[in-house]
Amino acid sequence: MGKINYDGKVAIVTGAGQGIGRMYALELARRGAKVVVNDLGVSRDGEGMDTSAADSVVEQIKADGGQAVANYDSVATMAGGENIVKTAMDAFGTIDILINNAGILRDKSFMKMTEQDWDLIISVHLKGAFCVTQPAIKIMKDKNYGRIVFTASTSGLYGNFGQTNYGAAKMGLVGIMNTLKLEISKYNIKVNTIAPTAWSRMTADIMPPEYEQKLNPQFNEPMTLYLCSEENQVTGQIFAMGAGWYAKTAVVSGEGVCIGDARRPIAVEEIRDNFDKICDLSTPKEHDSGLSIFSYMMPLLK
Ligand code: NAI
Prior knowledge:
The protein is of the alpha/beta class. It folds into 2 domains: 10-249, NAD(P)-binding Rossmann-like Domain (Rossmann fold, 3-Layer(aba) Sandwich), CATH 3.40.50.720; 252-301, no CATH class. Helices cover 39% and strands 14% of the residues. It is built from 10 helices and 8 strands. Strands 3-2-1-4-5-6-7-8 form an 8-stranded mixed beta sheet, with helices on both faces. Strand 6 (189-195), helix 7 and strand 7 (238-242) form a beta-alpha-beta unit. It is globular and about 70 Å long. The relative contact order is 0.11. The mean pLDDT is 97. 1,4-dihydronicotinamide adenine dinucleotide binds at residues 14-15, 17-21, 38-42, 44, 46, 53, 74-76, 101-104, 124, 128, 151, 153, 196-198, 200-203, 217.
């Protein structure tokens, strides 16, 4: 097996001015991709704007002999998303790879969460993925090729205190992916979701200081770049990672239990009496679409 490269490929990385996104942009360029380095240059909570974040990564890529162009639009509006895609088209003429990575935090316990904290997080993480991905897919569809990555979080997959807004947005990305994978599979476009872990300004004050080196953002880069490679054939999957640990994670169903005969009403006591079987996840199963859940009900539907 040869070295994986991205020669001739054009990649957009959102929020690539620092942290994990910067790692993606640098390595994609080192391996031959032409890269759109998008970054609005905001503070951790989404305030301000600074073009130097994207510029510094572009300068580094060019100094290393690679090709890159900066874009400073916010992912959170359709106009911004369209302009990010236009930047790629104007500079490099196509799009092969999109890594939706831009993000901010507005942590608060649920009871203290303001409408603004809620809306801003949802608009950057969830709506942002829609705003950039839809115009990018229009290009990928026509060329019958594309690799897309969404950036979720274990906060969405499993929960984290003070992050109901962030967790909802991040889990929402899994919801987008689950349906999008079905809609774009015939165009040879693969879409996957990652849940990274890294020491960055986003996590520096919540992680133990001794983890700074070991949770280097670089460790998230090879998995994400593999998912963006031509070799990758998986789609609709979730991968969690950090510090050199990589694992697939998934939403699964247990076998469950069929009660009654789909004619008579079912009583709440029957749920109580079957609760252990209902909760049994000893034979977990993934599902390609919501329709496959019908297979469990088939004995009742015959
Ligand atoms: P970071 O704060 O170092 O980088 C995020 C970048 O996104 C910043 O440069 C920021 O200016 C940019 N950005 C923010 N809003 C933007 C907008 N509307 N449009 C364009 N750019 C925007 O964060 P980090 O840690 O590198 O995170 C990258 C992604 O990974 C984020 O989506 C984050 O939620 C996610 N993540 C990170 C984890 C970690 O442990 N660091 C854990 C789980 C998820």
